[in-house]
Specification:
The complex is a heterodimer. Chain A is an alpha/beta fold. Chain A contains 9 helices and 18 strands. In chain A, the strands form 4 sheets. A 7-stranded parallel beta sheet of chain A has the order 7-11-6-1-4-5-12, with helices on both faces. A 5-stranded parallel beta sheet of chain A has the order 15-14-16-17-18. A 3-stranded antiparallel beta sheet of chain A has the order 8-9-10, with no helix packed on it. In chain A, helix 3 (about 70-85) packs across helix 5 (about 105-110) and helix 6 runs parallel beside helix 9. The longest helix of chain A has 15 residues, at about 70-85. The radius of gyration of chain A is 22 Å and the shape is elongated. Chain B starts with a strand and ends in a 5-residue tail after the last helix. Chain B is built from 6 helices and 13 strands. Chain B is globular, with a radius of gyration of 22 Å. By secondary structure, chain B is α/β, with parallel strands linked by helices. Chain B has helices at about 35-50, 70-80, 95-110, 130-140, 195-200, 245-260; strands spanning about 1-5, 10-15, 30-35, 60-65, 85, 115-120, 140-150, 155-165, 170-175, 180, 205-210, 230-235, 240. In chain B, strand 7 (about 140-150) and strand 8 form a beta hairpin. In chain B, the strands form 2 sheets. Chain B has a 9-stranded mixed beta sheet, with helices on both faces. Classes of the chains: A alpha/beta, B alpha/beta. Chains A and B meet through helix 3, helix 4, helix 5, strand 7 and strand 9 of A and strand 2, helix 3, helix 4, strand 7 and strand 8 of B.
């Protein structure tokens, strides 16, 4: 085939939602007779077939593999064999922790065109062009892939709207080679909560970031959050420093503020990994002394100013 | 026993900046350079292994970049690296992570370490690709986003945890030599003392070129890359509606937003 090959992402028996976003991303890469195929690698891949029968998918390829969960050697050898057999123009994977572990290695090994964290794709004069961020997301970078028959793109999550309509894809099986894997997955570990807060359920979150400067300032914001009735959250550096438990971290590797309606970010610069956990919130208020901070790009309201002064004044109102 | 740590001198943008005349990068006059934040953690992890070991462990840092990258390498020397290597040739200009990885793999072949560390990603372009691509060129076992590591120097295997999305970890055992990309927060990077900064300034930095690594000019730069920058531009940003006024007025408006959310009348 020419066309688009999508690698589904699953973990512990669940299809990860980003897989459907990849199907959406594939649609504008189709040329006339192109097909979109979704490959699912799992020890029992058939169980995911129903979840993948959505509009925009022509074929579902089940690839049984020995490893129960993601494993780099298994994925690289199976997907490599699949690419050689199918010769797609474009391979789409999620820009995710799993793909961090194999996509670049696969591209290097097979000599594929390659870009990660892609949030826009198009064909310009027939040539595939992918857009990603640069310099800490301050600029957009368009890249192309001269002379590459197959291009592997890792697509940023939450950028493409998943298809809602059902589809009628045909299903086929692909027998992948079974490599001797050089790493072995053991257990999954849920990060111990540290406290019993559930950031995913909180409707009103007040988050602190690197801007608070020192641990001694945490109680000020804890007290403020209590006073205004918000759940106190934090960005990565605060959790890494141990100033707040990891369970309060909002972002890609922390929690998603799923139920949140009002999000006040104080001293949070707005790294892409943090935005992934909160940029969907309807009302975001950012308070930051740096007028150029990325957080202002997703906020509805912004205050450029000193977070301690604002915190102190705000406290008087509650 | 040796641990090789790949580091990058990243570039951040000055408050005001301009796109270069050819439209494919930012004018270098507006770039502020520093050691990649992730690399501080991978270096610290290597130095920790060295310090905990009864047998000698050598920590070698390597960076691909022109002379200005020496500054970041000296920072690493001051924080506990034993030796620094910088690789550069003008033909490497325009290299993407795949081309850089090819160079790093060539250095790893020469140095023959038990572990190659790289940061999960760089703070400037965030590909999250270089370490794993280097592993492919070396044909070594590899894993990304390592947030804790147990490794005894000389051991045939290491055990680590990958940091997955949503507060989940995955424990994995891997054969060595291996390439691991290290996540923020795996440790607490040390500050360099004034004395060690002084000592680092006097240490030599080994400089290698293409020929030293038996690489051809076509294997690096744009020719050796898996992507090519076509255009760089400043996006139209969605901008927050700014709340103006003095601190008291700003706080009052914020209080009103909170009251409105809570359904209280101000």
């Amino acid at each position: 085939m020419s066309g688009v090959l999508i690698i589904a992402e699953q973990r512990r028996g669940e299809m990860r939602p980003v897989t459907l976003e990849l199907i959406a991303a594939a649609q504008n890469l189709r040329r006339d007779a192109d097909e979109v195929a979704v490959a699912v690698l799992a020890s029992a891949p058939e169980r995911f077939v129903d979840a993948l029968k959505v509009a925009g998918v022509d074929e579902i390829i089940t690839v049984p593999v020995a490893a129960a969960e993601f494993d780099p050697d298994t994925f690289e050898s199976a997907i490599g064999a699949l690419i050689s057999a199918r010769k797609p123009d474009v391979v789409l994977v999620a820009h995710s922790v799993d793909s961090f572990g194999y996509a670049a290695a696969l591209a290097a090994k097979l000599g594929l065109g390659f870009a990660t964290d892609v949030f826009k794709t198009e064909r310009i004069d027939g040539e595939l062009v992918a857009t990603r961020g640069g310099y800490g997301q301050k600029v957009c970078v368009e890249v192309d892939f001269p002379g590459r028959a197959t291009v592997l793109l890792a697509i940023r999550a939450n950028m493409f709207k998943p298809p809602e309509a059902a589809g009628a894809a045909r299903v086929s099986a692909f027998a992948a080679p079974a490599p001797a894997s050089r790493s072995a997955g053991r257990d999954f570990i849920e990060l111990s909560a540290g406290d019993d807060v559930d950031m995913t359920a909180a409707e009103f979150i007040l988050t602190i970031g690197r801007g608070i400067g020192e641990e001694a300032k945490v109680p000020v914001f804890r007290e403020l959050a209590d006073a205004v009735g918000a759940t106190l959250g934090c960005s990565r550096p605060i959790a890494d420093a141990g100033w707040l438990p990891k369970s309060r971290q909002v972002g890609q590797s922390g929690k998603t503020a799923s139920a949140c309606k009002l999000y006040i970010a104080m001293g949070v610069s707005g790294a892409i990994q943090h935005l992934a956990g909160m940029k969907h919130v309807a009302t975001i208020v950012a308070v930051n002394s740096d007028a150029e901070a990325s957080i202002f790009g997703v906020a509805k309201y912004g205050i450029v100013g000193d977070i301690f002064e604002i915190a102190e004044e705000l406290r008087r109102h509650f | 026993m040796k641990i090789l740590v790949a580091v990058k001198q990243v570039a951040a943008l000055d408050e005001d900046f301009a796109i270069r005349e050819d439209g494919r990068d930012v004018d270098p006059d507006f770039l502020i350079r520093d050691l990649n934040e992730w690399d501080d953690f991978s270096l610290e992890e290597a130095v920790k292994i060295k310090e905990a070991s009864a047998d000698p462990v050598e920590v070698v840092v390597v960076s691909v970049g022109p002379g200005e990258a020496d500054e970041s390498l000296r920072k690493c020397l001051a924080k506990g690296a034993d030796r620094a290597i910088r690789v550069w040739d003008d033909a490497m200009e325009g290299s993407d992570p795949i081309a850089i990885a090819r160079v790093l793999a060539a250095v790893a072949k020469r140095e023959n370490p038990a572990l190659l560390f790289a940061g999960v990603q760089s703070s400037d372009h965030g590909f999250a690709a270089t370490g794993m691509a280097a592993a492919a060129f070396l044909a070594w076992p590899h894993a990304a986003v390592v947030c804790s590591l147990q490794y005894a120097p000389g051991a045939a295997r290491a055990v680590f945890r990958r940091e997955l999305e949503g507060g989940l970890l995955h424990e994995v055992e891997i054969e060595c030599p291996a390439v691991l990309t290290v996540q923020l927060g795996i440790n607490t990077p040390r500050y360099a003392s004034l004395r060690s900064i002084k000592q680092a300034a006097a240490k030599p930095i080994e400089v290698l070129g293409l020929a030293d690594l038996q690489l051809g000019g076509g294997e690096v730069g744009e020719a050796g890359s898996a992507s090519r920058v076509r255009r760089m531009y400043i996006p139209d940003k969605g901008r927050a509606q700014l709340i103006e006024g003095d601190v008291a007025q700003q706080a009052q408006r914020l209080a009103a937003i909170i009251r409105e959310f809570k359904g209280e009348t101000p």
